[in-house]
Amino acid sequence: MTRDPVPGLLSRATELLEAEFAALPEFEPAADVEAMARVLEATAHRLGDNYPYFHPLYAGQMLKPPHPVARAAYALAMKINPNNHARDGGRASSEMEVEAVREIAGMFGWSEFLGHLTSSGTLANLEALWIANQLKPGRKIVGSEQAHYTHRRISSVLKLEYAEVLADSCGRMDLDALEAELRRGDVGAVVATLGTTAIGAVDPLDEILALRERYGFRVHVDAAYGGYFGLIAESLDEPARRAYAAIPQADSIAIDPHKHGLQPYGCGCILFRDPAVGRFYKHDSPYTYFTSQQLHLGEISLECSRAGAAAVALWATQKLLPLVPHGEFARGLARGRAAALELDRRLRQDVRFQPLAAGGPELDIVVWAPWHGADLRDASLTAQKVFDACAARNLHLALVQLPHSWFLPNGQAAGAQASGRMTCLRSVLMKPEHEAWLNEIWERLTAACA
After folding, report:
1. What would the pLDDT profile of 155-191 be if each residue is shown by its tens digit?
2. Tens digits of per-residue pLDDT, 123-163?
3. Partner of 181 at 20 to 30 A CA spacing, among 74, 89, 219, 413?
């Protein structure tokens, strides 16, 4: 592991925080230091039973290490353990959340909005669909077959019908299939995904919004994974650029700072374009929080207790790395995408591999089959073998099941192969360091395929 700067940074910051409360009389919290040391040693050994998510040779799932300043700020806040349900529970951290969320909304071009942090993208999406149901009660939720599986679950929790529409060979929502569903006249909200979990596909948001004008549904953008790529939209392919340019017209947006935003889990965020939806959150609580007359975060959130430390970590990170085009944060996104494009280029030049037929990655996720012309079963077995061989060389990839036809020119497949799904290899190159480590990744991958 690399040298960790957090302990030194945290030590000085902790002294400054303790000085803020120097007027209080001292007391000694009960603690058996020797017993704690033994438990922490055992904890460290148990945590060794993990993939090295922090290292550039981990190029599998959507796991990006928190920035050191985020880890330090989170740990510093845990000295107080604020609760951002209300200002009584987290005065400073509540203000920091408001400021940090305003910066995220500004990234999407919104200055008037309602929004807050959540414990996850799932909760952010749930709030969006809950509000959609408040405004269009009982109406159907529609998403692509490549949308995150939790949208179906959320719809079930809300007792709403959910319909999947087909995705094209690029993994994007098929507009003809969507319009066929809209013609039924019972759709209340459409979920447009900007950065699907499987391949990082970007749904055609601009064209979905054009359909909204005709059919009158709400548009929720699930940008949990891909939301931050709006900062480097000019470097994306034209369809994705158009989609990101259209985000300000959406009704709601979910984004996960604990993915590309360099935050610890869990830190999601939900934004609504119309602040008036806050009326649906209104509640009366006879037993809490009378020290402030201001609207508190618990009055605009379905969750009650929420980690104030998550807001502190996000605020600190965005102070260090502002969410602006061409800034250091944006350059980090661009480096990960450059690594993905280079890996895809090398895969396409190697006869052993079969990348997606439709083209390269839209964001920073690369998928491919270690196969050329093999049947589904053989291709899937080979993918598993390569996955294991890479892991033996400390290169950690991921596996994903995708339609076999996506890997064939013009979707050409016959019989059972046409509708079959195939296990493929998948690499999420979301760390800025992946660009510098691409040669090492390639060497280990090709050695694993020898």
Report:
1. 999 999 999 999 999 999 999 999 999 999 999 999 9
2. 999 999 999 999 999 999 999 999 999 999 999 999 999 99
3. 413
Q: Beta strands 162-165 and 140-144: pairing type?
A: parallel
pLDDT band of 409, cuts 50, 70, 90 = confident
Q: Quick one: pLDDT at residue 450?
A: 85
Residue 408 parent element (H or E): none
Q: What's the CA gap between 11 and 37, in Å, rounded? A: 18
Radius of gyration in angstroms for the set of CA atoms belonging to the chain, rounded to a whole number:
23
| This prediction's pTM | 0.94
Upper half-sphere CA count for residue 409 (Cβ side, 13 Å):
2
191, 147 Cβ separation under 8 angstroms: yes
438 strand-pairing partners: none
pLDDT tens for residues 221-253?
Answer: 999 999 999 999 999 999 999 999 999 999 999
Helix (H, G, I), strand (E, B) or coil at 378: helix
Residue entry with tokens 């996720």: 365
User: 3-state DSSP call for residue 226?
Assistant: coil
* Whole-number Å distance between alpha carbons of 439 and 369: 20
CA-based end-to-end distance of the chain:
29
Rounded distance, CA 386 to CA 249, Å? Answer: 43
pLDDT at 394 over 80: yes
Domains within the chain, CATH numbers bracketed: 91-320 (3.40.640.10), 328-448 (3.90.1150.170)
**Pairing label, strands 252-255, 268-272:** antiparallel
More confident of the two residues 108 and 27: 108
- Structure tokens given for 72: 């330090």
Parallel/antiparallel/unpaired status of strands 140-144 and 421-428 = unpaired
CA distance 50 to 34: 26
DSSP state of 67: P
Determine how β-strand 114-118 pairs with β-strand 268-272. Answer: antiparallel
Task: Please choose, from the candidates 164, 228, 154, 225, the residue with its C-alpha nearest in 3D space to the C-alpha of residue 190.
Answer: 164
